[in-house]
Amino acid sequence: MTWIRTLALLSSLLLPVTGMAYDLQFGEHDYGKLDALAKGMVVLHGNDNGYDPNSGAAYLFKLKYLTPDISGFKAAAGLYVNGDLFGLTDWESEKVARGMFVDDEGDDTAQLGELYLQFKRTWFNAFGGRKLLATPLTTISYSTIPNLYTAFGLGVEPLPKLDLAITHITEMSFGARAMTDFGLIGEGTGSAGAAVKPSTIGQAEFHSISKIALGEDAPGTDGITVLSAVYTGVENARCQVWDYYAYDIVNSLYLDAGYKMPLGKVHLDLGLQYLRQDDLGDELAGMVDFSLLGVKAGLSGKNWSLEGAYNTSFGDTAMFNAWGGDPAYTSSIFSRNAYRREVDAWGISGKYRIIKGLTFLASYFDYGQSDSLGAVGGVGQDLVAIDDAVELDLSLVYRPPQVKGLMLKTFYAQRTSEYNGSNGYDLTQDQWRVVVAYGF
């Protein structure tokens, strides 16, 4: 593992970003694409209160190969490596940003996280294997190694701009930030993207859907079947419907509609979302009754954008958010309280391009007191909401135009938990980090 880590550390001195790939084209021969990413993330400051992480230096190295098209078929394999960057993390005396690592002590860990086959024709596509899964309830922010899934899917386009698909998910692998989803963000509510403590069953390892949701002793189930319909046939509009049937656990129905239109020199962006979740079978019988409604409106110009969003949750319970989903319009860096029970959440966010390649982003969110019980460290269920949760986020991102694939980012997050003061706990954050990434 030493040579891999050395390569990752050297690469992280510059830095990687996703969404790029190097074409392995030699003359008339196509040998596919190579996607490489090196990333370094360091905590510069955090409150010394045992809640806000004040130590952490992690690296990610990703290497993915995608074969050339052979009669519509392509195959891919992706390796992820994560560990402690230069041994800078204080594992003994400070609060470690555990969500940057997939190992409890930051040891170098490698995972062949992506290994899949795909087939595509004009109106038909199919895939099978282990991969990132880009759907509303399987997409979530990640720091180093992401959440990954074993899934098989078919998609068709029976009418222009209408995409229908069926996907079956059999396994999931918790990424690094899943620990933050459960603890710091979720505060033991089971509503922020992880319902069990990821380290107890193992991260960067593929587990059954029932084990990910219910823990080590979970009975076997048949996974999750996802049905979707996405329509973009109306100019500037997008409508989508998703249903996630997790056998013997929960059913989640998600609807989202968006509309974008020009208004002179600016663009208007509107969105409406609805999520409904109910329990299935005996394991969670009578324990899941959740709805979420959200609206957003935004304006954008040449070098700027501004957006306002609102979510309200209702029903008898919080969301059972076990498999890494985060579609809410009001989610922020460290807060996803919109998925808790009986919450009214609102937020404003904006960005401004200072010069070419340099962008400033700011956001502020307020989450009304929920009826969900919380827990320090994700266990105990002994915290009650005292006041609204609030979060202020400030970020500066630089992508040098002259160095394609390089990203430098620093962000500051000031957050107060709704449980701050409950049982005498100081649950505030004053978090400052830097991220460097380079990819091709």
Task: Return Rg in Å.
Answer: 22 Å
Assigned CATH architecture = Beta Barrel
Q: Count the E strands.
A: 20
Quickly name the level 1 CATH class.
Mainly Beta
Whole-number tally of structural domains: 1
Q: Which fold name fills CATH's third level, the topology?
A: Porin
Task: List low-confidence stretches.
Answer: 1-19
The general outline is: globular
Taken in chain order, the helices and strands follow as HEEEEEEEEHHEHEEEEEEEEEEE
Plain-language structure description:
- By secondary structure, the protein is mainly beta.
- The chain has a single domain (2-439), classed as Porin.
- Helices cover 7% and strands 49% of the residues.
- It is built from four helices and 20 strands.
- It has helices at 2-12, 178-185, 198-201, 209-214; strands at residues 22-26, 29-45, 57-66, 73-84, 109-120, 124-131, 148-159, 162-173, 206-208, 224-231, 237-246, 250-263, 266-279, 289-300, 304-314, 344-355, 358-367, 389-398, 406-416, 428-439.
- It has an 18-stranded antiparallel β-barrel.
- A hairpin with a 2-residue loop joins strand 7 and strand 8.
- The two termini are 22 Å apart.
- The model is unreliable at 1-19 (pLDDT under 50).
